[in-house]
Amino acid sequence: MDKTTANGGNILFDNEAVKEMYEIMQKNNKDTSGLTALINHVGSMEKFVKQAENQITDMKSQLETMKEAQDHPIRASLQNTIKTLEVKVAEIKTQIAELKNNIIEGCKNAVQSFKEKGASALDKIASFFKIKSGLQAIKLNTAVNADNCDKAVAKIESFSNEFHKSSRGFKNMARIVVGKKPIDAVKEAGKLSKAVSAPYKAQKSIQNAIGKQCDKMITALNNLEQQTEVNRNKKAEKSEKPSLLAALEANEKKSKEQFSQKSEPGKDTPKKSKNGEEL
Prior knowledge:
This protein is an all-alpha fold. It has a domain at 3-149 and 205-252. Helices cover 77% and strands 0% of the residues. It contains five helices and no strands.
């Protein structure tokens, strides 16, 4: 395996079945870039999931410091959003673990098939990785999470504007009494909204990044399948050429035999009697 392409810390590269798969492919001059891409994308998803977990912690912290919302319905709404995200992120984490297991099992099956059938088994390596449905499930979860983040940000912005609008009259009256300029409610609301919304926006970005990794893995798998088809076609072409050559040689041999029979002296010459008549 080319260590320069390995994603640091990705334990899949250290798995015995995966390492054996690489060794077999390299010894049989097979391209390992497709398999490497799959494993690297899994490693990237794991890193993004860790970031998502950290962002959930930030969301909880921001909600605790949002004093203005202590007795407002938005508090319960955001708490529910955080719980939903927490459940979904945990679900994605489990799905990625299953994805890793499927890659390992795929390598094990490919290695076993190679031992039983030889190098020809490597021509259909993509078929050993049953991961497309898992990738699509992960992507669906990331889309739901990103949508929940958008809804949460919209609620935060709406609450922030309403809160500052309702309190603007009293605050501005007090400021005018002491000779200060009235408060710009929009600017003040913007500060609160920006602070509380930040982790939700970051969470959406992370979820989108995980979804993109799923797309990249599906593309890598498709490329692996296409390469498999190319290998099969090349193998078929090689097997057809000897057959065609054999047919040509057989025809040539037959023609030579026919020519040889015609050219033999006395061959097919009619016999004659002593008086010259044909017998």
